[in-house]
Amino acid sequence: MSIIITGANGKLGTLIIKHLLEKVPANQIIACVRHPEKAFEYLARGIEVRYCDYDQPESLAEAFVGASKLLLISSSNNNDTIRVRQHAHVIEAAKKAKVEHILFTSFAFLGMGNISPSHLYLATEHAILTSGIPYTFLRNALYTDFVGVLGLNEAITKGELVTYPGNWLFNTVTRNDLASGIAAVLSSPDHTNKTYELTAPRSWSFEELAMILSELAGKPVSYRQDPQVQNWIYGFLNKIDTSSTALDLEILIGGPVATLKESIRPFITP
Ligand SMILES: NC(=O)c1ccc[n+]([C@@H]2O[C@H](COP(=O)([O-])OP(=O)(O)OC[C@H]3O[C@@H](n4cnc5c(N)ncnc54)[C@H](OP(=O)(O)O)[C@@H]3O)[C@@H](O)[C@H]2O)c1
């Protein structure tokens, strides 16, 4: 069995391979990367490294030869027209290389959000469905990392977390929990033609975030909404479904996802 992973030098790919190594021998994993010279740690651990660039279709069919499972980690390009083309290159190459099963890191609760970021993922899922290759859609929640742009340390200093008004609820999870769930799917049978919503099982609010900031800082942090707050993140959050929850991730991991307190600790300056 060969499990081939694209985007393997990225943050999610690195964590997926770390979890996968706990479940399958290194010689069953193939890391596909755009910069093989940065993948020396994989080689040192006995993982085969192959060159693959989503913009170079000829590199892809070669890189995917022999794949029992191919994990397409969605491209990080910030132009969605380019990303749609890149994902199409991967799917076409998977077909050419006779990949037995394609898995895709999609986005949670597509179709329930206010769409634009969802279009890319829906288009990619559609292309995979129509390719006829057995598939698994791993619909990732928003990473909890997004809290990094909310000014948490500033909120602690001021004793007040201020956000744009709204009935905000978040189903976010850490990359590490996503990677653990995805590694579980990659290393076990019976996931063919299934879609998993990889979110937290319970959503959290900005009020809860302020309470946790108080606990972590050891001083009160209150919460207030203010229409004067200017931050690009609220426009983005308004376009996706951040509130729906599912149990899929905890079932795959076989335990609870990281708590909000654990997840935001890395964003707090001691
Ligand atoms: N759920 C969320 O909240 C969320 C947030 C941000 C992003 N995402 C999506 O999730 C994906 C994985 O997240 P991440 O944290 O691992 O992102 P990341 O650290 O930026 O990793 C993205 C990976 O994609 C690779 N890549 C980009 N363009 C490529 C190309 N043309 N050909 C081959 N590989 C290419 C990059 O290669 P290099 O190492 O060579 O640059 C990198 O390894 C992102 O790419 C993005 O689509 C999700």
TrEMBL record:
Pfam families: NAD_binding_10. InterPro entries: NAD(P)-bd_dom, NAD(P)-bd_dom_sf, NmrA-type_oxidoreductase. Residues 7-189 form the NAD(P)-binding domain. CDD domains: TMR_SDR_a (cd05269). Signal peptide: none annotated. SUPFAM superfamilies: NAD(P)-binding Rossmann-fold domains (SSF51735). This is NAD(P)H-binding protein. The lineage of its organism: Bacteria, Bacillati, Bacillota, Bacilli, Bacillales.
